[in-house]
Amino acid sequence: MVPTSPHNSAVPATKNRHASPIALAIALCVFSSACVVGPDYVVPTTDLPDAWQTGSGETVEVRDWWSTIGDAKLTELIERSQAKNLDVRAALARIEEAQAVFRITDGRRSPSLDATGGYSRSESSEAFQGFPSSSQSSFDVGLSSSWEIDLFGHVRRSIEAAGANYEMVLESSRGVLISLHSDVAQAYIDIRLNQQRIAIALTNVSNQKKSLQYVTKRHDSGVASGLDLAQAQSNVASTEALIPQLEHSLTRSIHRLAVLLNEPYPDLRSELEAHTEPWLPSPPPRITSGLPADLLRRRPDVREAERALAAETATVGIEKADLYPRLNLAASLGLQSGKLDELFDSDARRWSIGPSVLWNLFDGDRARGGVEAQEARVRQALARYEQTILLALEEVESTLSAHMREGERVEALTRAVDAYRRSSSLSEELYLSGQTNFQNVLDAQRNLLDFEDQLAVSQANVLLDVIALYLALGGSWEPTEPQQKKDQ
Questions:
Q1: Residue 384: pLDDT band by 50, 70, 90 thresholds?
Q2: pTM, entire model
Q3: What residue ranges define each of the domains in the chain, with the CATH number in brackets?
Q4: Which residues, listed in sequence order, are joined to residue 353 by a DSSP beta bridge?
């Protein structure tokens, strides 16, 4: 429901024989700024859990979170993206646009002043006026001013809505920057992962070729069967077949990073290929997640949804103000004469001043329908705000769980890789000594390749979960003071 305001009853219901209700309301509003119709916005209260189901409740430092990963190249790339990215450039332009729109709206507080000037020459119709026609000239210069007396808060609510819209754009732009940091980091981790997977595949191809060489020698000497030789050859070929796919994934990831940095692909590829091991950076040993209530303060999408609700609430007042009279005060001062050389004479002066009232007495109930429609928009904005908070909570909880479980998977895969390396070495020794068949060597080599690849992917997923968690917690900025609404 849209909150009500005690100022909604701007027109007294009682009659007075000395002053009409409308005149009394206007008089009161002229001498008081309290006649602002529509609801006064209050930030909705939200029930949030006291702590996360998973993770630490300690204060979380999200500014420059990428420094916790400890990769200097990643830090450099993020700094370059901030300076060059086109989405950031467009977001900054949107902020400038919103600032300008706010200044336009805020300018309605003050009277407008225009300079005027003109010249005309006319001739009357002899047939119409019944006597010989005559021509005359008119010279006119002066100043004109107009000012809307904000009786019922139409201007003030407009400024309030424009201020909330500006802040909404500001939060949206913060979201663009935060997403950029996350996208750059994800692209960089994808690049490093593909490089590591290619290195793993090449190492396994090298080891499998060595196995193929001694199987070939044993086959040529009649010790090994043709089946062993064919299996060794297929093992090498199947591993080699993985490399083109990984190279394509690497190319795609570098292209993605090049777009984010707004830099040429060839130069960026050369730079990243020169930066070799360790391929994947190490994740931070420990991260904190803060408290659920911090999301209302830090996450730009939550702050943006709250500002959207504030803007819609202020617009209710704009719509309600249309139900009441609008008072404008106009004045002009100038000089007017039929001859240019007499324009600045004392008797050429002219002036006018006077108020005008516009009150829509009948519009087929369109104005009231506009109020009801806007109140419905407020309810929609409130639902979106609450939904944004729920999705934020879900995102943090899911990411915390994923990060913890993926860490456990890395530990298990590390043990499996160590075991398969021993198994591969032992199976080769046993095969060469004739104590086992070549199938055991193949199984050990294939399992080693598979689990080394899985381990690399899982290690990358831990890093991606760290990135996703910082993004879910509000990204790479920390508000230093409470969010303030524009001066009303």
A1: very high
A2: 0.82
A3: 37-111+152-322+374-472 (1.20.1600.10)
A4: 331
